[in-house]
Each structure stands twice: as C-alpha cells, then as structure tokens.
Amino acid sequence: MRSVRVTCTINGQPREADDVWPGESLLYVLRERLGLPGAKNACEQGECGSCTVYLDGTPVCACLVAAGQAQGRDVVTVEGFAEGTELHAVQKAFVEAGAVQCGFCTPGLVVAVHDLLERQPAPSDPDIREALAGNLCRCTGYEKIMEAVRLAARS
Ligand code: FES
Ligand code: FES
C-alpha cells in the first residue's frame, strides 16, 4: 500500500506529515512525526484514555484513529491548552490538587475534563466518574483527580 501525506490543523496551526502508512495511528503521527508527545501511548487499544485528543471538537482515543482519518480535520492535543507559559485552568487544577503523579494519564484526563466542563460546567461526582470512566490512572486512586475536576469547575 502507498504512503500518503496527511494535512490537518493541529492546535490551530496547519500541519502536514509525509510518508504516512495506512496502518499508522493518529497517535503515532502526532508523537513520532510531528513532535507532539503530549498524548501518551500506554495501551494502544483504546482502553486507557492516555492518548485522548480532540478531533473536530470530539474527544477520541488517538491510538484508534487511523492517521488518514485526520485528513483535513481539526486536532487539538494537550499541547494546545496552555496560553504561552500560562497553564489552562484544568491543568492548573490538576497540579494544585496533587492529581499528577507519574503523569502518564494526565494529558488524556486534561482533554476529557475540559470536554466534560464544556458540556457540564458544574458536574456532580457521579457525572465526573461517568465522564472519566475511560481514563485509567494507576497511581492516584482517583480521589485527587476528582478533587482536580471540582477545583477546575470552581475556577
Ligand atoms: S493508548 Fe490509546 S487508549 Fe490507551
Ligand atoms: S498519575 Fe500515574 S497513571 Fe495517573
């Protein structure tokens, strides 16, 4: 099969990747071809949420999206959240709540929490648990993540 060029918008900038093979995931292209290592590769099977990015405004597991599917579309990764050196409120809340330990789950969680708060600015704890059910964390026991989301919702 032929390799292709993929062009899309990433974090507001036009980007392109050459020689992309049909089997490559969007996650691989982001991390290995475009120098955007924010989205993490933990399971590569759509089960942990550490690779979550926005695709046309919808959170997706980038490991499950073929890179070619991003052609002409709008991608936002965790690198697109901060304004210069100023962290986004969701990122700040994670730091303040102590919800970042190894940090592997954090980029995906930041995207998922951002999406939740866009849809539900004042989520209940069950709302938060449901929204983050696809994002696994092996370090924190989740309570500090819950606190981070409550904090972000208040900010
Ligand atoms: S790396 Fe994509 S869901 Fe785990
Ligand atoms: S902080 Fe380590 S997996 Fe969540």
Entry keywords:
155 residues, alpha+beta, five-stranded mixed beta sheet, 5 strands, elongated, binds FE2/S2 (inorganic) cluster
Concise overview:
With 155 residues, the protein is α+β, with helices and mostly antiparallel strands. It contains five helices and five strands; from the N terminus they run ββαβββαααα.
Give the number of DSSP strands: 5
Given helix and strand content, the structural type is alpha+beta
Instruction: Report the biggest beta sheet as strand number plus sense, adding barrel if it closes.
Output: 5 strands, mixed
Strand content: 15-25%
Low-confidence stretches: none
N→C terminal distance: 49 Å
H and E order: EEHEEEHHHH
Q: What's the arrangement of strands in the largest beta sheet?
A: 2-1-5-3-4
Bound molecules: FE2/S2 (inorganic) cluster
**How many separate helices?**
5
**Average pLDDT across residues?**
96
Tell me, what's the shape?
elongated
Helicity range:
25-40%
**Radius of gyration of CA atoms, rounded to a whole number:** 15 Å
